[in-house]
Amino acid sequence: MHAYSGLKVLDLSQGIAGPVAAGLLARQGARVIKVEPPRGDWMRGAGGGREGMTANTIAGNLNKRSLAVDAARPQGRAVIERLVRDSDVLVENFRPGVMDRLGLGYDALAAINPALIYCSISGFGTSGPWVGKAGTDSVLQAYTGMAAVNSPPGTPPRRIGLYVPDNITALYAAQAIGAALYARATQAESRTDKPPGRHGRHIGISLVECCAAFQAAPITDALLFPDAATKPSVLAPAGEFRARDGWLVAACLDDAMFARLAQALGQPQWSTDPAYASSAARRARVREVNAMVGEIIATDTLAVWLACLEAADVLCSPVNDYHALLEHAQMRHMGYMHSITQAPYGELRVPQLPACEVPPAAAPRIGEHSCAILIEAGYSELEIDALIDAGVVHALKE
Hints:
The structure is a single chain. The protein is α/β, with parallel strands linked by helices. It folds into two domains: 8-217 and 355-394, Crotonobetainyl-coa:carnitine coa-transferase, domain 1 (Rossmann fold), CATH 3.40.50.10540; 233-319, formyl-coa transferase, domain 3 (2-Layer Sandwich). It has 18 helices and twelve strands. The strands form three sheets. A seven-stranded mixed beta sheet has the order 6-5-4-1-2-3-12, sandwiched between helices. A three-stranded antiparallel beta sheet has the order 7-8-9. Strands 10-11 form a two-stranded antiparallel ribbon.
């Protein structure tokens, strides 16, 4: 048994945040149906790839099945309503009001299944002057300060080169869904304000609040030290240093580690010099200290310095690209990457989900499981053929 074995999830979301959130449930044993339009989730056409299988589509939809149905048509809405009857969770990430206009809002579906955990993911929440604003990655990184904090003082703001707002929102959403499921399972019997039975709830979560929560420490830091120029550094030395043939990261947590670093760099006198001997003194001269370390690192190769720093038990790492990461001995030893057979590419290595024993399985193509899912829901073959002929359902044909 896995954590979410037996759980049925309808994933009506598109893009990254919603699919990744539902994908986390799938990777922990839930039966997740990706419900998408006959043309497919819009992410299938964004970012390259073949036959609707982009990198984000694969990463966010491992271990799911796909049902392609037009929810804007009455017959399509009826399909989803039937699936909702025995579902535990529904995930959607449309702008506020869209699901209600489709007749698939929380109130409508809770009337069909009161136990449903319904998770709505939005960009800027469900009210306020920006309630209808699209919340893309770049917009959220700019709005929440990520782009500003990712750039050195005096330089233009710079987007972090990952879909950070979407992925952290997915993590918060999956955690909130898990908490709601736990509450449903453990608290329903003790509640006297509702009829007996399991009761679901509507979870509202936004990218903007998740970005703020994720940045709780730097936001607090900005409030404590409004003049950034006076803010003390956390560690010194610390940062990226260029060797002859590449970059490495090094940092010192305390005075003892700095003494070992000084010895490894051939500068033992640093650790007894009052200007650098204490953490407080080094933090006050962080640029000077980093420059001293950088000047010495530049004289030799990555291999030499990494060996020296590791032998001295100083925090350090090469600055890898993804290929170097996956080929490193530690990653190979951990067996963190798993091979799947992913159409249309064949064998593909993907990361395992941390602390999870469910092996990754291929992401579905558009409508790959439409017929099987409808049969499980009680539709006859004649009814399925009629839905396909009417263009309400798309079923992948081999």
